[in-house]
Amino acid sequence: MTVDTAVDSMTVDTAVDTCLESDVEVSGAVTPKSAAPSSAQQQESGDVSRDRGATDDGVTTAPPEIVSSSESDVDVAELFATHTGGATSSGRANAAKNTRRAEATPFDERTGPNKREKGKKGRKKKNKRAEPPMPADVAAHPELAKYWYQRYRLFSRFDEGIRLDREAWFSVTPERIAEHQAERCRCDVVVDAFCGVGSNAIQLAFTCKRVVAVDIDPLKVAYARHNARVYGVADRIEFVVGDWMEVAPSLKADVVFLSPPWGGPEYAKEKVYDVHTMMPIDGFAIMEKARLITNDIALYVPRNTNVNQLVSLAGLGGKVEVEQNLLNGKLKTLTAYYGGLV
In this structure, which long-range contacts are made by residues 270-277, counting pairs with CB atoms below 8 Å and at least 24 apart in sequence? Predict the structure, then answer.
């Protein structure tokens, strides 16, 4: 079986009335960026090959097109109208009155086992590979089957020995999204506060000089270290087994990347996701710990997250950029950027 990995990147402009008490601004912008490392970075990481397709940057762009609600899991205008409409408390942004339908610029990245080549007569030929049997630990959980078939979207080098535990299958950041986030978080030292099996830490290691990857689960940290070796970046990552809420005060970094646990796939069944009550760890408390290190923070949250809450997390006089992350034209997640990342 082959799995296409085409990704749509969407730019969203959201006009928002702001309260006089808080100069909080909201904007959303996603631009198609290549996360491929520079030649210097490739040499530093042992000339790691990212296998990004036939073009120089691995991306083929096409003219913009309007995304309709049928092409997206969530209607973009409805999403922002729902989460930003109505009265808000002091210090939060008011209704987004001029939200407009977003424009998407689709592009295709040909990676790993799904690379396509043109035949002599210009016809596209697929590299046929026998679909490997589903691992017993995945087959034992039918709900994981769909993630197995999307494994190359999670890790393009999956066949080189990537390791995941059960929770990681539905909590890993897809590689193309992680690449984009890493580019936005480019700095000297970055903390990945909930690294899991390393999907974000690996990509951050391609854009930052040093990554501090924290997770409370020793097994996940062991898998993250192994997966980092697969990508050739383990030497740039310092792994820490510990509780983020306890170790945060002892850390120093330029940027903090937060991808806290969401409470399992059930979050998608909720109309609005509350970061205060639905996260296993209060999202507001997580942000407070991050601010002990820096104000430059990226927060990765479900697509149905209450945008008012993301705005309020910016604090009095702060700024936040809420970015919509899409794969194959479907809205998957949101990333909120704070401080100097805006």
Answer: 270/304, 271/82, 271/304, 272/82, 272/83, 272/304, 272/305, 272/306, 273/301, 273/302, 273/304, 273/305, 273/306, 274/306, 274/309, 275/301, 275/305, 275/306, 275/309, 275/310, 275/313, 276/309
DSSP track, 82-145: HHH-S---TTS----TT----EEEEEE---GGG-EEE-TTS-EEE---PPPPPPHHHHT-GGGH
Full pLDDT tens readout for the chain, 342 residues: 333 333 333 333 333 332 323 333 334 444 333 444 444 444 444 443 334 333 333 333 333 332 332 333 444 444 444 444 333 333 333 333 333 333 333 333 334 444 444 445 555 555 666 677 888 878 887 888 888 888 999 999 999 999 999 888 988 999 999 999 999 999 999 999 999 999 999 999 999 999 999 999 999 999 999 999 999 999 999 999 999 999 999 999 999 999 999 988 777 788 999 999 999 999 999 999 999 999 999 999 999 999 999 999 999 889 999 999 998 889 999 999 999 999
Pairing of strands 237-241, 210-215: parallel
Q: Is residue 42 classed exposed, middle or buried when 0-12, 13-18 and 19+ CB atoms within 10 A define those classes?
A: middle
Residue 287 structure tokens: 């942000």
